[in-house]
Amino acid sequence: MAKQVLIIGSGVAGTIIANGLCRQIKNELASGAVTVTMIGATDKHMYQPGLLYLTFGKMRESEMYRDQRSILDKRVAFFVDPAKNIDVEAKKVTTESGRTYGYDYLVIATGSRIRPDMIPGMSEGAHWFYDLEGARKLRDALNDFQGGKVIINVNAPHKCPVAPVEITLMLREFLTAKGVMDKSEITYTYPIGRLHGLEPVAHWAVPEFQKHGIKSETFFNTKSVDAAAKTITSEEGVTLPYDLLITIPPHTGAQVITDSKLGAGGWVPTNKLTLLREGSDNVFIVGDTTNIPISKAGSTAHFEADTVVDNLSSLLKEQRWSRNYDGKVYCFIETGMTTGTYIMFNYTTPPNPGPPSHMVHWLKLGYNRLYWLSARGLL
Ligand SMILES: Cc1cc2nc3c(=O)[nH]c(=O)nc-3n(C[C@H](O)[C@H](O)[C@H](O)COP(=O)(O)OP(=O)(O)OC[C@H]3O[C@@H](n4cnc5c(N)ncnc54)[C@H](O)[C@@H]3O)c2cc1C
Is 182 exposed, middle or buried (0-12, 13-18, 19+ CB in 10 A)? Predict the structure, then answer.
């Protein structure tokens, strides 16, 4: 009987695993000893970092999407049929269509989603760029904006650790180029007592913000937004007025994780080295879905996926473990419209952002195009 690998989620992690695995186990696939099946929620694949550029009119929607089938190895059986319940005891996944999928190895890569509805008034009073509709609306609002108080409001947990810093620094240049920065004031709010969760990034951001006149309000845990009064209030009792509110809403994991009782908030308890679900030896958790205290980022998903590919192929071919995940993350940071820097870190080595340069900005623009090779598992 063929060994069945089932992947739930057709985003960054799921796609890299499906494609990478097919290359590593080509003989087993050809002989019918192994099958690889993926179930997703959509037949489109979005390059989510593109939303930041879309907001400033620097990327077209067509550049951000591919048909999922077109970037997936032909040997993967792909179904658009969202998982409704995951039963890790019975080794069964049931889907919205009522189908049931069995597996020998399961990969859960259902990502995370924004939840502006969790904060009273946020959906009505705030803009965001973390989904397509939000980015389109914010782009229109920025085009209409004639100056005033802008608040960049960061809530946790959220994916892409550096996107809030990027939009803040890019926005300043955007408003300067538009000729309204002298009539504007940008305030960045953050829930803990510094500018970023990663301490070295927080230290790096202080002079970057200061030199551009960007104000900040730390220990700001959002309580509510009053869309009519145009104010945002924190649990700590601070109320800030705004003309334009840009929020990074709080996130949760996918609904199916909570419904299947696999983890509070939709985050699955995961061994940070093996990426196995705590208590399972055949269920891998990858990307934003894990509860590992590490940045939720496409690059995290990518490096985790590479580890899972090596381990799944070793387990399938040789019944042995290959290697552990070392916590590697690499993120570009746009520091304006034409400059950038980057951070690279793992479980033992903290990030160390350097001075912004044009070269790193261009590398990020290059990666925005190379992503499609990355998703195919070629980069
Ligand atoms: C504006 C923005 C900028 C970003 N910039 C960067 C950046 O510069 N660098 C970086 O590294 N990261 C960045 N990220 C973060 C990055 O996109 C995510 O961390 C990454 O996509 C996570 O990969 P994933 O595979 O875990 O989840 P995703 O890529 O989100 O994929 C999850 C998939 O699971 C599917 N799914 C959900 N529920 C079900 C279900 N029940 N059944 C089947 N399928 C389901 C979803 O439809 C989705 O296709 C950015 C994100 C945003 C929004």
Answer: exposed
Count how many domains the chain has.
2
- Asked if residue 371 belongs to a domain, the reply is no
Q: Are residues 121 and 244 in the same domain?
A: yes
Q: Which of 221, 243, 222, 265 is nearest to 122 (CA)?
A: 222
**0.90 exceeded by the pTM?**
yes
Q: From the CB of residue 35, how many other CB atoms can be counted at a distance below 10 Å?
A: 17
| Contacting residues for 166 by C-beta, under 8 A, at least 6 apart | 52, 333, 334, 335
Q: What is the DSSP string of 127-179?
A: B--SSHHHHHHHHHHHHH--S-EEEEEE-SS-SSTTHHHHHHHHHHHHHHHHT
Amino acid 69 reads R
Checking if the pLDDT of 329 tops 90, the result is: yes
Residue with tokens 């705004």: 242
C-alpha 368 to ligand 1 mean position (Å): 15
Ligand 1 pocket, residue 297 CB under 6 Å: yes
CA distance 155 to 331: 19
Helix (H) or strand (E) run with residue 52 in it: helix 50-55
Q: Which residues pair with 78 in a beta bridge?
A: 38
122-139 residue pLDDT tens = 999 999 999 999 999 999
Determine which residue's CA is closest to atom 31 belonging to ligand 1: 11
Kindly state the tokens that stand for 114.
């924004």
Tens-place pLDDT, residues 57-69: 999 999 999 999 9
CA of 318 to the centre of ligand 1 (A): 31
- Verify that 95 and 7 share a domain, yes or no: yes
Q: How many other CB atoms are found less than 10 A from the CB of residue 350?
A: 12
CA 367 to ligand 1 centroid distance, Å: 16
